[in-house]
Amino acid sequence: MQSKTSQTTSQLTPRQLQLLKAIRTFQASRCYSPTIGELAVQLGISRSTVFEHITELRQKELLSDSRRRARSLTLTLKAQNLLSNFTDHSSDSYRQSPAGIPLAGRVAAGLPVEAIEDIEYLSLSSHFGNDDRLFALEVKGDSMIDDGIRNGDFVICRRSPVADNGQLVIAIIDNEEATLKRFYKEKCCVRLQPANDNYESIYSDNCRIDAVVVGLLRKL
Q: Which entry of 66, 181, 187, 219 is annotated as an active-site residue?
């Protein structure tokens, strides 16, 4: 006889299960819910497809939300129990693999140096520590190009409600839109400064800091 969890899991498509996991991971790392647009980008599917899956997950009593707010998707208790009991075999294999990329030594970008192999492992935790406030975001757009941050890069962020003037931050505007900009506190508002002359500064009196940027990753 199948358990209720097994029955519910069998009623889900792989994409719906992936969507539930994506919402759980986003909420755990960011402390607020993702938008339909952010889920579409993360999963590589269209907004309309995400919306259709969310509608079906609501009908299965696995998601709840407020249709008047952009960031209100919430996993129901039923969904949380399902995910906590679900065995992700891919995560088991991940835990068995090395915790990082082999760091085999150093290479000169100036005068040549002696090649000495010294195997260590390069990982995010080796550079930024095992801080549960850390998370990564993929950059979409070129508004920070003059700061060396390109479309498709990954920024390493540390959750923080405050920032110093001039710091790179992830800011939430009007409780909905997230943006990567340099933070400046003005007399009566906040200025979010791009690093591209093709973009104008954003001035807001309804802005909160979600995180400060502490690193950058790029795949060549």
A: 181
Q: Which domains, from first to last, does the chain contain?
A: 4-92 (1.10.10.10), 98-128 (no CATH), 131-217 (2.10.109.10)
Q: Which residue type is seen at 104? A: A
Catalytic residue among 6, 21, 90, 143: 143
Are the CB atoms for 210 and 159 separated by under 8 Å? Answer: yes
Quickly state the pLDDT bin for 143 (edges 50, 70, 90).
Answer: very high
CA distances for 72 relative to 28, 63, 81, angstroms? 14, 10, 20
Q: Are 186 and 172 in contact (CB under 8 A)?
A: no
181 is catalytic: yes
Helix/strand number for the chain, H first, E second: 7, 11
CA 65 vs CA 48, 81, 156: distances in Å: 17, 18, 29
User: What percent of the chain has pLDDT above 70?
Assistant: 76
**pLDDT tens digits, 100-114:** 666 556 556 656 655
Lowest mean pLDDT among 5-9, 26-30, 101-105, 167-171: 5-9
**143 in active site:** yes
- What pLDDT was estimated at residue 10? 56
Name every residue whose Cβ is closer than 8 Å to that of residue 54 and which is 6 or more positions away in sequence: 19, 36, 63, 65, 73
Task: Tell me the backbone φ, ψ of residue 15, rounded to 5 degrees.
Answer: -70, -40
pTM: 0.54
- Residue type at position 33: S
